[in-house]
Amino acid sequence: MNMESFSQMSPESKIETVSELWANPDYVTVSFRRHSVYTGPVDKIPSRTGALNHGGIDKGRESAKKWKEQVDKIPGEKRLIMRQSPSYFIATRAQSEKENDDGTKVIPERTILPQRTAQTASLYEKEVFGKLEPGRRQFDDLLGDFFEHTTPEKSKLIPAFMKLRAQHYGGKMPQFWKDYNEGELPEDLRMALPPAGGSESKELAQNVRQFLVGVKNGFKKDGKKEIELALSHGETEEAFLELLSEKLRARTKKENFEIPDMDYNQGFDVHVGKNGTIFVTADFLKTPLKFTIEELKVNK
Q: Do β-strands 137-139 and 78-84 pair in parallel, antiparallel, or remain unpaired?
């Protein structure tokens, strides 16, 4: 999408540059990144559903290398923190054939839980630290996808939601996500989301806001520059950008602030000040956008 108008709407004519925000230890820099390309249900490979495919691994490594290069440019002492969405797909994998005591042969199945964000995060960890270390990466469900907070009971209704979505959209997923982020889903589809444990776009945006509240509250006054990697999902990132777009429309009384599609491995950076001021920067923004965490709060 064309972000020309969105990128020009900095609320101030003179603010810190992107490089200054990255280097300033008075701001915690949080890099939101979408996970890499994975094997989806439509690929019909049950044992790999939710896991990165070969192309996704290569692209994830490229993205991790680019991020490390940015981090390495920052002078002085740094503290790096890695967080990831715990979202997973349930898949099964047939094991080797076994023979029972009575001579009958069986092929037992084992349930596996592929996590596309966790696998992407591991690529970043390996690139940045050189090796993987248990416990280094932290799970945070505020970074989760739109079914992150479902329950085992409610999740039984997810297939019905997906079937209804297919009836409305077929393979037109970009249109579905656009309608989802703008709150324009068909009424029956919108009503089918909560029973299946799904979250609406506005809820995902507030999850990101709450995540940033935690970053602000955890600010450490030790002079080190804190940089966090937050591996998340396209709908979660786009939900937050939609919230920013709404705030810009309210400020300027203009209606043409479209948000970009967050493709695999794409994202943006949020620089969080200890007083709750944030600056949002990204490749698709010409200048940083300034907000406060408090003004992004939406009462239910």
A: parallel
How far apart are the C-alpha atoms of 296 and 263, rounded to whole Å?
Answer: 24
Domain holding 135, by residue range, is 4-91+110-149+199-296
Taking the CB of residue 32, how many other CB atoms lie within 10 A of it?
26
Q: What is the pLDDT of residues 257-298, one digit of tens each?
A: 677 889 999 999 999 999 999 999 999 888 899 999 999 998
Tokens at 249, concatenated: 């429309």
Average pLDDT of the segment spanning 183-211:
96
State which H helix or E strand residue 29 sits in: strand 27-34
Which CATH number fits the domain that encloses residue 133? 3.40.50.1240
- Which residue, chain included where needed, has tokens 């790999």? 48
Q: Check residue 250 and give its pLDDT.
A: 84
Burial label, 242 (beta-carbon count in 10 A; 0-12, 13-18, 19+): buried
SS3 173: helix
Decide if 166 is inside a domain: no
Q: Is the pLDDT of residue 42 over 50?
A: yes
The answer to whether residue 291 sits within a structural domain is yes
Upper half-sphere CA count for residue 220 (Cβ side, 13 Å): 11
Work out how many domains the chain is built from and give that number: 1
pLDDT digits (tens, 9 = 90+) for 121-144: 999 999 999 999 999 999 999 999
